Amino acid sequence: MILFQNARLISFLSGGADGPCDVAVSGKHIRSVVPAGTIAAGKADKVIPLEGRTLLPGMFDLHMHMYFVTDNFADLGARSLNRHLIDSISYLNLFLMRGYTTVRDCGNSHFIGVTLRDAIAEGIIKGPRVFAAGTCISPTAKGNDTFPDLYTEVDRPENLMGAARREYSQGVDFLKYMATGSVANDTGEPGACVTTPEELSAIVEAAKSLGTYVAAHCHGTAGILHCIRAGVKTIEHASFLTEECIRLILETGSRTALVPTLSPVCELYEDREGTAPPHLKAKVETMFHAARMLPTAGRAGVPIGWGTDSSMKFSAAHPGYEFYARKQAGFSAEEMLRQATIESAEILGLSDRLGTIETGKLADLIVLEDDPLSDITAATEKAPVLVMKEGEIVCGCF
Ligand SMILES: [Zn+2]
């Protein structure tokens, strides 16, 4: 048994338990959460004295790409497959060290997400729990050739069932579909629809018939409305969200979730290093301001997941940047902590096993040096001092 002594727990992430508490872990699971001092240290195989540091559930990133290790897109396409695999493993390692114990790979080439998901599940390599899409299924669209092998272009509704089956036969967990243009694609127009309502309905029906769902890349308002009507499960980015979109989600009762990814938007908008390409900077300016609608959606009851969508190079240099970026959009510390844990677990249908610190759940736990409720930016811009996944300490200095 591993005993975390004298932890600060956050009640809304710990089934109502408030710090200071002791948390006992045995095997893969949390065995008890009790007031500090209740469990005798002698009963534990290992005691971790937290001395008031904050214990949080392992975090989720519902929108990452192990594909993106650098912001130099030309380099990505020039890599050998071997190098791509090694890069992806090191990116997954970084995620784990940053406290993400569950990630969703939202598009990759060569089904590398599937391969690494299985290698991690089998214990061959260490990494976060992975849910993997395959390639991004996209209508023929401007700029898709920016990223070699990342997109599978498919046009017309009748062709989407075949595309979905080809992806699914490779073992993907869900389908990624492009509903609007992209920021990162050289000539992509984020606000513009690249699909039709008929194509969206066809891909959603194809996914349902295979027992899975669609995560749709979607920035523009018309695209968001089409995605909600078609029954897409997660709308990625959701940049130009309006009150009409929020109303429609609530009216349909579909629990359509939004997965904003404000890190790249905020990074390009602020351009702290003065290196943002002008054409990308121009694209994100309106997005940065439009993001202020997202907290309104969350407060109205729309599920909001956590996503970073950043390169490994940027993530390594700026831990916790998504917390900073969402704070600029108006989210509170409590809202963000919920989104990165319990709310993302609910979106993936995992809240019976993950997302909070409660007896019986899997022991995915992270320790922060500082209190995230008093200063979310300061507490998250440093990597966690300990990360545990399924009862195993995967990094930490205790
Ligand atoms: Zn993405």
**Major beta sheet, strand line-up:** 10-9-11-12-13-14
Main beta sheet strand tally, sense and closure: 6 strands, parallel
Q: How many domains?
A: 2
Spans of at least 5 consecutive residues with low confidence: none
The top-level CATH class of the largest domain is Alpha Beta
CATH superfamily of the largest domain: Metal-dependent hydrolases
Global mean pLDDT: 95
* Attached small molecules: zinc ion
Tell me the number of helical segments per DSSP (H or I, 4 or more residues long). Answer: 14
Q: Give the helix proportion (percent range).
A: 25-40%
Written account of the structure:
By secondary structure, the protein is an alpha/beta fold. It has two domains: 2-57 and 355-396, Urease, subunit C, domain 1 (Roll), CATH 2.30.40; 59-347, TIM Barrel, CATH 3.20.20. It is built from 14 helices and 17 strands. It has helices spanning 73-78, 81-97, 112-121, 160-168, 197-209, 221-230, 243-252, 262-270, 278-290, 294-300, 312-317, 321-329, 333-347, 376-380; strands at residues 2-7, 21-26, 29-35, 46-49, 54-57, 59-64, 100-105, 129-132, 136-138, 151-153, 175-178, 214-218, 234-237, 257-259, 365-368, 386-389, 392-396. It has a six-stranded parallel beta sheet. Strands 3-2-1-4 form a four-stranded mixed beta sheet, with no helix packed on it. Helix 4 runs parallel beside helix 5, helix 8 (262-270) crosses helix 9 (278-290) and helix 8 (262-270) crosses helix 12 (321-329). It is globular, with a radius of gyration of 21 Å. The two termini are 15 Å apart. The mean pLDDT is 95. The structure holds zinc ion. Zinc ion binds at residues 63, 65, 106, 309. Zinc ion (ZN) binds at residues 63, 65, 106, 309.
